[in-house]
Each structure stands twice: as C-alpha cells, then as structure tokens.
Amino acid sequence: MKTKSNLLLLSTLLGGLLFTFLFWKERLALNLLIYSIYLLAITFINPDVIKSTKLKIYGLAHLLAAILVVINNSDLSVVTYYISLLLFIGFGHQQQIRTIFTAFLAAILQMVTVPFNAIKQLSQISMGNVSLKPFFTLIKYIFVPVIIVILFSCLYAAANNVFAHYAENILNHIGDFLDQLLHFFFKDLSFERIMHLCFGLVLTGGLLLAFFDKSLEKTELKGKEQLHRIRRSLGQKTIWYNIAKTFTGNLLTRKMALKTEYIVGVISFAALNLLLLMLNTIDITTLWFGYEPTGNFSGELHQGTNSLIFSIVMAMAVILYYFRGNLNFYPKSKTLRALAYAWMVQNFILIISVFIRDGYYIEFHGLTHKRIGVLVFATLCIIGLATVYFKVAKQKTIFYLFKVNGNVWFALLLTFTFINWDVLIVKYNLNHVDTVSIDPYYLTSLSEKTLPILDKNRSKIHPSTNNDSEIAKVDQPQEALMRKLDQRIGYFKERYHQESWLSWNLQDWNTAKYFGVDQKN
C-alpha cells in the first residue's frame, strides 16, 4: 500500500514539474499531447486501476483528441480535449459508472477534492519509524479554515472598496516578500512560476489520485435501463403522484387513475398531432417547394429555426413524461403509442424543415459557426427522436436515454473535431462570393489558420451585391479590411517567431510556412 502511495505521489510531483515545463508561457498544442501521454502512461501503470475495455476506449478517445489539437488546433478541439480527459479520469477511477454525465461529474468531484486526496496519500508515508500522519493531520485542520477565510475575504472585498484596498495591499506585500525570498535562494524563479508549478501539482494530483468516496458510483448502479411495472400500495406515494395531485385533487385516489392518464394522453397527442400537421402542411407547401425570400428573410429564418428547435425538445419531453412508468404496460395503450409514433414522425418532418431553413440561410448568406451549429443541433434532435422511439417501443428508462445519447454525443463531438471549421467556412464563402452575401468582417475575424486563404483571395473580400440583403447594402471599405488583415498577419509572424517547439501545431506551421516565418527554437 505504501509503495503504491509513494509511486502515485512521485508521479504527481513529476507531473507537476512536467506541467510547468510544458505550459509556462506556451500555447496549447504539442505540449497537451505530451502531457496526455504521461497521464495515460501513469494511469495504465497504476496497479489499482482496472484496465477494462471501456477504459481503453476512452483512453484512445482522449489520445485522439490530443492529436487533433496538434492537427487542427481549434477551440472545438481544445474543448473536446478537456471533455475527453475528464471522462477518461472519471471512468478510470470509478469504472462501474455507465454514463458520461456521471463520469464527468465524478472527475469534477475528484478535482475539487485534490487537497484531501493528497493529504490522505501523504499521511500514509513514513520515514523509518517516523510517521508523517500527525503533521498532515495538523494541515488538515488548518486547510479548511484557510479556504473559508479566503472565500469570505473575496466576498467582503467585492462588497466594500476600502476592505478590498487593504486586502490588495496585504496580498501585494506578501507577494513581494515571497518574490524577494525566492530571488534570494533562486535568482531565476518567480512567485508566478511557483504558483504555476503548484497549479500543475494540483491538476496532476486531481487526475492521478483516486477519489476515495465511491457513493456516486454506487448511486448510479441503482439506475435501470429496462422499465418494470411497479405495483404500489395505496399508502405509497411517489413524487409524480404528489405533483399530479396538486392539479387533479382527488381524481388520483380513484382506481381508474391509470386509465385517466391514458385518456388525457390520447387527447393530448391527438390535439398535438393535428396542430403539428397544420404547421408541417404550411412548411411543405411554402418552404419545401418554390420558396422565395421576402424582405425580412434573415430575421424570419432565424426566429423560425429557434422556435422549431425548442418545440422539438419540448416534444421529446412530453413523450418522456407520458411513457415514464406504468402507462407503458397498460393493456389498451396501442392507440396512445400510435399517436406518439405519429407525433415522432411529424417532429422528424419538422426537423427536415429546420434543415431546409438553414440551407436557405447558408445559400443566401454563407456559412457561419451558428448556422453550422443549427445543422449539428438538428442532427442531435434526429438521434434524440430515434432513441425516444426505441425507449417507447422497447420500454426503456430515461437512464437508458442518458446513457445512449451521452455516448453518441461524445462520438459526434470527436467526429466533428476532425473538421477544420474555420477553414471550411472561409473556403466556402469565398468560393461562392458571387452568389452569397458574405460578411467580410466576420471572415477576417476567424482564427489565424485562415490567414493564407484570406491573403490569396484579397480581391474577393468585399460585400457581395448579388442579393438584396442587409449585409449587401452596407458600405464596407475594402482598405480598412486589408489593414485589419495585414495587422493580423503581422501579429501572427511576431507571435510565431517567439514561440518554442512546445507550442507547435500543424495549422500554425502551415500558416508560418506560407508567410516564410521560422519558430524561435
């Protein structure tokens, strides 16, 4: 036990040193991949961690996310990296967890409880006959009061400017003293670098030291994927019973409560089907075939798309409510199921309308992140509807929906990270500049990986006049756009030349190669 604790603590110390070496004044790129390889290696070396198939899959997913940061180096790739890291850590230390949402929460709890885990590990270390447990027990007593004092000091400083002034002076004096002390012993070290090292130690400890409380894992194990009919006694009341009784009074105390809910469900789904049928008929006749943009084309599509997406989410919530329990086993529920399936089909048609609306938006105004986001969200709605259908047809639980959709969403997140969205947006819009009313200021504000494409197509960076849109009517001086582009190119050259190999990524390298810039070392 002591040998294992010593190994983990030594790994945490080395990880903290590696962290400050890799990330001090560097951009997130190749250094993330190196750090992840270290974490993966230590995790799989740790004898306390079971090397299950699930852990290997999420380990490979995280490694892939780290590689994609080096290749694409986009904001999405960095977000995917952090999500995959937390999922790997969550599943690594609590492998009986089944959903990515619980794994994510478990990893967050593990990060928050780093000091307690570290103290627990350190207290098990002994040097000969001398135990360190009394010393770390004293630290444990001091740590919580210090955190409380710091928290309330921040609150009081936010509430009182005079208190904030004195608190800032005290902190500055403490910082100056520590800086002088460090410079006395180590001339090349600074207080900020020490804090960076401490952050690396805390982060690495949170990723490597297991959270000793398994209550979250045990709680999730109670979740079932298959619905079973629950026969309740008259005295047994559920939360749904109490909520429904607020609106129905004594109606639920009757023997026919389930039949009443069935009748209400049939009426609700019948009315909703008729309502949605009317909307879908209007969309099919006016939007699907022969659509002509009107004066407020942009606002019309934007508002309509947001409303439809919200309605689809609400539709799935309604279905989940009615098929949450014993109504799934009601012998005369065929009519209700048929109406629910019909409503799912109609919502699928509604999603097609969302795709068409967004397609028109892209056709007339070009690609943007938000319009791509609408396509992605509509795709997720299709997946959600499919899993809701399977839930109703196979009598699955909501826990099952969370499990399946979570895995699918994570897989799609990794898949979408393969695409270099900024480059795709710029290439599409500039290739369709004669037919699309582009926003040149939006294009020139995208990430630096698009600079070579923009530089090659300077003559195309102007508002299109092919459509009678609001963007086309705005006077955009091309000289100002070119100055902005030149400033961004100059900033990139200066920034790239100052960075080391730790900040290397493929996109920056391609951009630097185009402009003839070399990295510092």
From TrEMBL:
Keywords: Membrane, Transmembrane, Transmembrane helix. The chain crosses the membrane at residues 7-24, 30-50, 62-91, 97-118, 138-159, 194-212, 262-291, 303-323, 335-356, 372-392, 404-421. Pfam families: DUF4153. InterPro entries: DUF4153. The keyword Transmembrane applies. This is DUF4173 domain-containing protein. It comes from Pedobacter suwonensis. The lineage of its organism: Bacteria, Pseudomonadati, Bacteroidota, Sphingobacteriia, Sphingobacteriales.
